[in-house]
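subagent[fold] <- orchestrator: predict structure for attached chain, return tokens only, no commentary.
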Amino acid sequence: MSLAVTYSRASEGVDAPLVTVEVHLANGLPSLSIVGLPEMAVRESKDRVRGALLTSLFEFPPRRTTINLAPADLPKEGGRFDLAIAIGILAASGQLPKEPLSRYEFIGELALSGDLRPVQGILPLALAARNSGRALILPLTNAAEAALVKGLTIHPASHILEVCGELNGTAPLATYHGDAPQPSTTERLQPDLADVHGQQQARRALEIAAAGGHSLLMIGPPGTGKSMLASRLPSILPEMSEQEALETAAIASISGRPINIEQWRQRPFRSPHHTCSGVALVGGGSNPRPGEISLSHNGVLFLDELPEFDRRVLEVLREPLESGKITISRAARQADFPAKFQLIAAMNPCPCGYLGDPNGRCRCSMDQVSRYRNRISGPLLDRIDMQIEVPRLPIDQLMQAPHNNNTSSAEVRQRTSQAHQRQMQRNGCSNHQLNSRQISQFCSLSNQSQNLLSQACEQLGLSARAYHRILKLARTIADLASSEQISTAHLSEAISYRKFDRRPQGNP
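subagent[fold] -> orchestrator:
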């Protein structure tokens, strides 16, 4: 029977569904047709495959050839199926044995010379191949990325003849054993928190945010170090687990961004410009692609000059801030992307930027300040856990060497990691992910603390969401202090970080 079956994988969001490539040769006029919802790049693979086989001195069967990519309702795109199609044609025409095909999955684009070219989205594909129990044959260039997945048998090849040697048993391919660097041996290149002059309150808020995964908004005049502080947050965040690192690397893989194998366990830091569109921020396109919030999954999304972003763009952050994922729906396709990012934002206190400056440079009226701050909606501000002021430093502090009294990122990282471990042992998640039932269980307050929080809610007009966020924030502060119970001091500090719940003071 002139039928051969090979296996490959498509790309659908961060998933890699199995594609069964069925090649059938029949009598009739020589032709080649590909069915199974192929896009243009897949339909063009017949010409690439024909050229690759002929230049590799194989016979291209002069028969009616039908290639079915199953399941038929799954869109297929790119040149990733070239190798599977070529191997299927050779097996169906008797030039390769069919028996070994069930043990492998094939991925790779073919050059007309028969060389294998790399494809995007290897990491999700490698994860799925490992779960299927089959070995993976792929281009040599993609081998290092696929090797991040433990327990997967990888056979890299640079030419289709090498793949045929593996299937024939005449020249078996070597098994790739790339060892990903461990966190302890990975060189850390992030800037150090010790470089920051002064700003002890902001440094404290940054440490709390890192320990519990809380979002943070910094308000202050230009040049006070808001961006500098934000860029140093990744250096004090707890190490990613292997599963978190694989999830983050998989998103980078499907977006076509190169993965630095030496630094793949470092948390991402994304800082889009305020002119970015909603699609750039959350993802989109006719073929849905991840946006900035997904590229910062398990890392930091920094939005500088927050009010300068289009308000409609900022509003799309509300759902993923709560759910930790984003669903992109189009007429023909839908894709789910993870988006558990830590939002860090910065803004000026007023349009001119100098509200509250001791030199009296600000001339903004109360209405101007209100209009400026109203560019950020109340529901979005309500979802930001911490809102702090970053004041201008006196010149004498700027002239001091920053390393004399400042704590380094390594020391702060040790404290945040210990607090994070307490949360994982107690909650099974970071404090910012606590649900209502967990809040009731792990964030209980004494009578004195309950009265304090009740007064704060009445005076500041806090919503139920803000109430719960204060409790989660207080739980993180207690964890940093190695305290089992939330004290009044912990709660008072948490309430102090709700700057935007107070009425702004402007010039008359």
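orchestrator: received. Logging for downstream: Residues 193-417 form a domain with the Rossmann fold fold (CATH 3.40.50.300). The longest helix spans residues 409-426.
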